[in-house]
Amino acid sequence: MGFNKIKIIIGREYSVRVKKKSFILTTILTPLLFAALIAVPSLIMLYGGGKAKTIMVVDQSGLVADNLENTEKVTYQNASQGESVEDLKSKFKDLDCYAVVGISALDSNNNVNVVSYSKEPLNMDIKSSISKVVKSAVEDNKLASYNISNLNEIMAKVQTDVKFDALTITDDGGEKKDSVEIYMIIAYVLSFMIYGFVFMFGTMVMRSVIEEKTNRIIEVIVSSVKSFDLMIGKIIGVAFVALTQFFIWIVLTLGILMVFNIAVGKDAMKGVDTGQIAQMAGGGTEQIAEAASTIQDGSGDSSFMQDALIQIKGINFPYIIGCFLIYFLLGYLLYAAMFAAVGSAVDNEADTQQLTLPITLPLILGLFIMLSTFQDPNSSLSFWASIIPFTSPMVMMARIPFGVVPLWQLLLSIGLLILTFLFVVYISAKIYRVGILMYGKKATFKDLFKWIKTKN
């Protein structure tokens, strides 16, 4: 192995890629996208409300109208005496209102029906708000019909807020408070980032090999450099590109958010719907949206946010970030070697579909197992998937934030990942050595096995 030649290849691969317009645009636009994902919902909450909507109310029950409270977004207006819902509906065009809401008289079971008429589908927030008010008013009326003395006092005593402290026992016999919701979000974000980055930068290596092979540059290069050194140089060069881009993304994203926070003010961030962010950022899984929503409102308990902040401060972020970098680099090296072999076996990117299927399937499988790991990080499925090298980068990062991974499991997983990488590099190098000089024929799996058996 010529280390000096590998260093030259790494330097060339790195310099060529960081100077590309696509790299510069992606490096700049991605942090803007991340920041917009967080900032845009708050701006919508601040400036997207528009004009307050007027709703005409016909309350035949006499229970609801007085409980409908005006807000910045909605103004409720009672219909004139004697006007019915049908009357308002017939002259809706002349009314300067968003919707007409009719509440029926009480039936024999003291229930009511609600109907609304509007020119456009009724806003979900408005519909939910009216439904809650009607439900509360009808229930209060039913309770009042029982003529129970001191009812309000009894109800106040009956209502109970359950405080649930989930504590884990530490190795020294102590205890600490944990938040599964926080661990779930951290695990999801880091695991999904590994999946995305490994796939993105792995295919970057494959495209680089195809490009040089198509342009016949590869024939000149291999005349002075061993094919194995060339493949390793490409893989490591793109790895440095990935780390550079990753570092710039972190710095720019934090910088943009700091500027936004200063420009708009801290109050703007209070309007951010974290559940919505989680759904947009991570493929829309209900578990993450639920967890983010729980952290956001804490069921109205302000102490919940204080506890959450304390728990976040107690998380060992250097350990988690260190594990993330290890699994990202090893996962990338493992899959990049396979992508490089595929790139050497074809003449154009269109022919890679069949050969990349066995590579992408473990990645996708790891992503699905990662989602189930949130429910039980110590299950047999989660354990074995975090040990098997082809799925361990995603699944192990889904387990680590929960603090349930013993040191021996972590070392075993990393050790197997390193050994598998070395084995895959050895196999991929055999394919690469033959494939980069093969033209005009679409390689099959049979060809790949034949190249692997070829002696050096």
Characterise this structure.
The chain has two domains: 3-43 and 175-453, no CATH class; 53-139, D-Maltodextrin-Binding Protein, domain 2 (3-Layer(aba) Sandwich). The chain has a four-stranded mixed sheet with strand order 2-1-3-4. A two-stranded antiparallel ribbon has the order 5-6. The longest helix is centred in the middle third of the chain and has 38 residues, at 227-264. The protein has helices at 3-18, 21-47, 85-90, 124-144, 151-158, 180-214, 217-221, 227-264, 266-269, 274-281, 286-297, 302-314, 317-345, 353-373, 380-387, 392-399, 407-435, 445-453; strands at residues 53-59, 74-78, 99-103, 114-118, 167-169, 175-177. The protein is built from 18 helices and six strands. Helix content is 65%, strand content 6%. It has 456 residues and is α/β, with parallel strands linked by helices.
Rg: 30 Å
Largest sheet: 4 strands, mixed
Please give the alpha-carbon distance between the first and last residues: 14 Å
The tally of domains stands at: 2
Point out poorly predicted stretches. Answer: 267-285, 295-302
> How do the SSEs run, as a string of H and E?
HHEEHEEHHEEHHHHHHHHHHHHH
**Spatial order of the strands in the main sheet?**
2-1-3-4
Estimate the mean pLDDT confidence: 79
Number of strands: 6
Large-scale geometry = elongated
Q: Which percent range fits the helix content?
A: 55-70%
Indicate the structural class.
alpha/beta
Count every helix, treating DSSP H or I runs of 4 or more residues as helices.
Answer: 18
**Strand residues, percent:** 5-15%
